[in-house]
């Protein structure tokens, strides 16, 4: 068994740990590959944030005729060259992934890259199945950065149909005419926008009565209304059966109107993700996990086993790349400075859903504030009430803020509408640095008539003591 100073399992955010400060450490990096191309570099680069946003931008452009119509500009989407879109996006991504792999494999003399599935066999001991054999390795320290994978629900017949997940759907051979999207979360909402904008007829199926129901209820309700205008939305449905049908699939649903069957050429399953702790057999390594399979960590990202850290989707309640990267920097520091550890900061974690309209959020929703008995005041500013909103003829978007009336501290911010992920950043900054909602709107200039006036006016609308 070869012994190392450090083993890193997973090359998503885990890949960023190694820098010059580790050049005299003997390090093993283990990676099994993600997606249908078995790529190096993790979910975000290969099958997550980056390709999806490249498709989202393309979808936004493809969707511009509908925006033009409102403004008196007749545009027509005459052609969607799916193969060209797909190959442009993955031509760029696959090159980055492969050069990342080559860098680790060939240009880091102190790093040994194992390409295969790692599994714990004991405390800080692993076996890597490389496909051609098994390699046993151990280390003084181990970083578990092995992420997660799509969760497939147990629907009768699911194993008899060709379904896609986010791991495979972006590499479809041809653009289908129709698609059923199962799940109304982040992935469902982003792909529904992508594929419908490219001309695919989308049916979205959800169990509850709202799309993106984790968002503030006003945002989720507004999004559900707009989604119902764009897609065939089947909410409050349970699935009883899925089966092959013609050149696609059929899904049998039970809902408020009884039994119904929906057909489509392609089925995309977007019903959440599960952590890869089972593949790793974390239990054999003595590593404690929660009921949902997430590795348990303390505030310094230490697991229950001395010398073993975890970060990102495998351990975090926030399955977001900026959180995985933050935790990676914490682990990096704590590996280098074991006597002076730092803690992860999960106080104000923002997220965005890159669908249409866009959504961004940080802090408490109104429901959470109520459930926790927190005293708050709220303010809602419509895009329709600011100059740039008039320019865009936006009729659906708004920003909603919650603040503590006594201290003026912001408690939560939720935006639905154009550029929401960009507009929310000054509010994330205000919350992170403790800036007061009283001084924020008038303590600085806001460029007129730019979109951040939405945030300025929402702040001015707060009734503070
Ligand atoms: C479709 C989609 C879109 C997304 N969009 C966004 C977005 O816009 N913004 C955002 O913030 N987040 C987004 N996310 C979430 C984001 O991608 C993840 O939070 C992030 O990639 C997690 O990083 P990680 O390092 O924890 O795990 P990963 O990047 O998943 O890395 C884990 C690595 O470990 C490897 N591995 C797993 N098990 C083993 C094993 N036993 N042996 C060897 N190797 C193993 C895997 O192959 C993988 O490469 C998206 C996710 C998806 C699926
Ligand atoms: N823009 C972003 O930051 C971004 C984009 C995509 C994904 N992500 C991350 O990836 C994670 C996974 O995304 P996701 O959309 O798969 O998960 P999700 O948790 O956001 O949504 C999954 C949805 O599927 C539903 N569901 C579960 N089982 C079902 C079933 N049998 N039938 C119908 N619906 C069912 C759930 O109720 C939920 O609404 C997200 O939580 C997010 O953290 C982030």
UniProtKB/TrEMBL annotation:
Active site per UniProt: 448 (proton acceptor)
Domain FAD/NAD(P)-binding: residue ranges: 4-324
Record-level Gene Ontology MF annotations: nucleotide binding; oxidoreductase activity, acting on a sulfur group of donors, NAD(P) as acceptor
Cysteines paired by S-S bonds: 44-49
Superkingdom per UniProt: Bacteria
Gene3D superfamilies tied to this protein: 3.30.390.30, FAD/NAD(P)-binding domain
SUPFAM superfamilies referenced in this protein's UniProt entry, alphabetically: FAD/NAD(P)-binding domain, FAD/NAD-linked reductases, dimerisation (C-terminal) domain
Co-factor requirement: FAD
Cofactor: binding comment: Binds 1 FAD per subunit.
Protein keywords: Disulfide bond, FAD, Flavoprotein, NAD, NADP, Nucleotide-binding, Oxidoreductase, Redox-active center
Domain Pyridine nucleotide-disulphide oxidoreductase dimerisation per the UniProt entry, residue ranges: 349-458
Binding positions for FAD per the UniProt entry: 53, 313
Binding residues annotated for NAD(+), in chain numbering: 183-190, 272
Family designation: Belongs to the class-I pyridine nucleotide-disulfide oxidoreductase family.
NCBIfam families: PRK07846.1
Protein name (Swiss-Prot/TrEMBL): Mycothione reductase
